[in-house]
Every structure is written in C-alpha cells, then in structure tokens.
C-alpha cells in the first residue's frame, strides 16, 4: 500500500514552503501588492511564533496544529486545492465523497505543515517584480529564497481571488508543483484501490499521525 505522507518530494516542498514564508525585513516594504502582502502577513505571524514560542513548537502538538489551522489555512483556497488535487476523480465523486476528501486532505495538510515546523530557519526571501491588473483573479507571486552559502531557490505561489480575497492554491519549488505531486499520489491510489480506498488510506494515515 502506498504511504502518501512519506513521499519525499512533497515533504521537502512543504518544508521549503514554510521556510519561504519567513521574509527578511529587507524586503518587507510597503511596495508589495495584495497577494505579496498576504505572504508577508503570514510570514510575520510565523516569525513572531518562532521568536516567542519556539519551545511550544517542539513540546505541544496541539499548539502546532492550532497554529497551522489559524495562520496558514485561512490563506489557502482549500476547495480549489481539493478539486485540483483529486483531478478528474473530483467530478466523479459524490457530494459525500468530496466532503470526506476535503476534510481528510485538510487534516493531511495541517499535519504535514506541523511536522515541517521543526525544520524552519530564517532564510532570506526576495519578492520578484510583478504587475497585477485590477481585474485579474489569478496570479503567481514569484520569489527567490537565498540559503546561506547556497544558490537562490525559485519559489512561486499560485494564488486566486475568491470572494474578494486572495488565497494560495499551489506552490512550485524550482518549478516542481506541490499540488501536482499530491495529485500524482492520489491518482495512483484511486487507480489501484478506488476513491473509497483513497479516503480510507487518508483517514488511517491521519489517525496514526496525531
């Protein structure tokens, strides 16, 4: 049986995503547009937690899960992510299967973020120039992450405006999409075990990672 949570590429991308959200004050300027400011807002909240509550990140799982739930998920378009992650099988799913998948996928994201928090360090992030027309509802926030002694890493956030609010629905690290990685894993499970098999595996995996 495929173990979804142990896919190295997805875990690596998630860790780097969290690291990318810690933005250096050098680039925390008022010149950022709204999607960029959302990433900045999340990074500021996370930076404060790292300064003030680092010990809780290592000792209190409930605190970590609550942090992810409150700090990150409000800025994620979970409905869009769920539909895209399930690919063509989303259209075939019943309303109840869609509900179950979205709930389990949210739990998976929370737990994956939580497990990545221990690896965080304050890397330098640079927002690349971008233009944003007033009537645009989708955009890509492009950044470069500078590691100490390493080459910059390209990280792009795909975002959509939903009900007047910008939310992220994918992140690509060096052009490797986290969403595409999840979709590949989920598709493989559905093809071998069916959609109910995927839901059962997600539920089992989430239960064992509490």
Keywords:
single chain; 210 residues; alpha+beta; Nuclear Transport Factor 2, Chain: A; five-stranded antiparallel beta sheet; 8 helices
What does this structure look like?
This protein has 210 residues and is of the alpha+beta class. It has one domain (4-208): Roll (Nuclear Transport Factor 2, Chain: A), CATH 3.10.450.710. It is 55% helix and 16% strand. It is built from eight helices and five strands, in the order αααααααβββββα. The chain has a five-stranded antiparallel beta sheet with strand order 1-2-3-4-5. Strand 2 (138-146) and strand 3 (153-162) form a beta hairpin. Helix 4 crosses helix 7 (95-116) and helix 5 packs across helix 8 (178-208). The longest helix is centred in the last third of the chain and has 31 residues, at 178-208. It is globular, with a radius of gyration of 17 Å. The protein starts with 7 loop residues before the first helix and ends with a helix.
Could you give the topology of this structure?
Layout: H1 8-20, H2 34-52, H3 54-59, H4 61-71, H5 78-86, H6 88-92, H7 95-116, E1 124-127, E2 138-146, E3 153-162, E4 165-173, E5 176-177, H8 178-208
Antiparallel strand pairs: 1-2, 2-3, 3-4, 4-5
Helix pairs in contact: 4-7, 5-7, 5-8, 7-8
């Amino acid at each position: 049986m495929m173990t979804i949570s142990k896919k190295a590429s997805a875990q690596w991308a998630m860790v780097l995503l969290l690291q990318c959200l810690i933005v250096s004050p050098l680039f925390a300027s008022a010149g950022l547009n709204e999607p960029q400011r959302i990433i900045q807002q999340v990074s500021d909240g996370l930076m404060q937690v790292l300064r003030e509550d680092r010990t809780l990140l290592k000792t209190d799982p409930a605190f970590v899960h609550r942090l992810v739930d409150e700090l990150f998920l409000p800025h994620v378009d979970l409905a869009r992510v769920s539909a895209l992650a399930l690919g063509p099988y989303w259209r075939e799913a019943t309303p109840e299967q869609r509900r179950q998948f979205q709930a389990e996928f949210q739990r998976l994201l929370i737990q994956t973020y939580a497990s990545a928090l221990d690896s965080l360090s304050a890397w330098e992030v640079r927002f690349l120039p971008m233009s944003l027309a007033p009537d645009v509802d989708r955009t890509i926030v492009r950044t470069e992450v500078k590691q100490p002694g390493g080459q910059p890493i390209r990280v792009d956030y795909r975002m959509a405006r939903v009900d007047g609010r910008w939310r992220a629905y994918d992140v690509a690290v060096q052009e490797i999409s986290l969403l595409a990685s999840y979709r590949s894993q989920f598709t493989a499970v559905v093809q071998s075990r069916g959609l109910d098999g995927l839901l059962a595996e997600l539920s089992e995996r989430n239960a064992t990672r509490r």
